[in-house]
């Protein structure tokens, strides 16, 4: 087993295709394919499931990836320390529901990166897509919430896909509204207060189930209901239409200015925010740095920290 084989393996997983990985590595596709088959033969395990539509990792392959990444990372650190080589290109991909604190942590992580080169990905995605991203290793971790309503369904989905949920904090539901909305002047609002305002929520595509909704209390009836696809649009509609959405209560003035405020919602419910990982993988140092920044950002707000 060689470092080159491990790097070939990691690059193939990254692209999800032997052809694309070969192009990225500037080697012939048959050469890469043979190298991967030799690696599988040496360890006596199939690392990939090969189909006409492409490749995906086996369970053994997912576990092997975690070890391979650590070995390659450590090799780069050794070379940097003892051979004065340029630090390797840092890689990290994260999928998340639409939370400002997740973006804040990402910004802080990037600012603290000491590598000369990096390639980071932050995907604000639908709930089911987040699970799929982490399951298929397109992302190292995903950020989502659980509540009394969706917990059983989310837990079942995570277990079926060999994923683990790591709680970060528990939040009471808040209503996000424009600072010019009359509701912004209240100490707290009730569901009855919201009746005449447009409810804004993130559409979930083919998996538009109440259980996958990003907004707690999604089963409550709303006379005016608008689905959106991104965070910028939802904030614009809060301002332009006096709409509201229900979320954690963490609003980032750094990212959103003072136009959006959070008002406590008077309901007997809460949300547990956390991140999911693949149970067979250990996080890279870069992903661990992101988690540390998540915790640091969250601690700045008045929420119940679970870590």
TrEMBL record:
Q: Which Pfam families match?
A: HTH_1 (PF00126), LysR_substrate (PF03466)
Q: Name one GO cellular component term.
A: protein-DNA complex
Q: Which InterPro entries match?
A: LysR_HTH_N, LysR_subst-bd, WH-like_DNA-bd_sf, WH_DNA-bd_sf
Q: What positions does the domain HTH lysR-type occupy? A: 1-58
Keywords (A to Z) from UniProt: DNA-binding, Transcription, Transcription regulation
CDD domains reported for this sequence = PBP2_LTTR_substrate
Q: Which family does it belong to?
A: Belongs to the LysR transcriptional regulatory family.
State the protein's name.
DNA-binding transcriptional regulator, LysR family
* Taxonomic lineage: Bacteria, Bacillati, Bacillota, Bacilli, Bacillales
